[in-house]
Amino acid sequence: MTSGKVPAADAHDETLQRFDELVAAFVHLDDSAVVAAFLRDLCTTAELDAMGQRLTVARLVGDGVPYQEISRRTGASTATVTRVAHWLNYGEGGYRAVLQRGRG
Question: Residue 9: pLDDT band by 50, 70, 90 thresholds?
Fold first, then answer.
């Protein structure tokens, strides 16, 4: 289920297997309430907040909002804004796919 790209140098078989299992778990969920329950069981509140913040940052970057303004609005560091912008523009396409399907 991986993208076919060469994995990062620090990625190993166990990490890739865990990633594939996590992806498969999400693919089989078709009810938003079950997805929400799974995320709440799986992640800490800090992890959920961080992921939600990154999605908000991605939306604002996509809308053309300046990085400093995004940082001010979201509380994300400018380093986080820059990293999210990089993955939005040059990553696997996940942010774009989510943002195109809804407001995110």
Answer: low
**Contact (Cβ atoms closer than 8 angstroms) between residue 7 and residue 16:** yes
CATH 1.10.1270.10 in the chain: give the residue spans: 44-104
Q: Name the residue with tokens 């993955």.
A: 87
Mean pLDDT confidence for 30-35: 94
Hey, what amino acid is at 19?
F
The fold for domain 44-104 equals: Trp Operon Repressor; Chain A (1.10.1270)
Q: Are the beta carbons of 67 and 85 closer than 8 angstroms?
A: yes
DSSP 8-state assignment for residue 4: S
Rounded Cα–Cα distance for residues 49 and 47 (Å)? 5
φ, ψ for residue 43, nearest 5 deg: -115, 155
Q: What is the pLDDT of residue 3?
A: 55
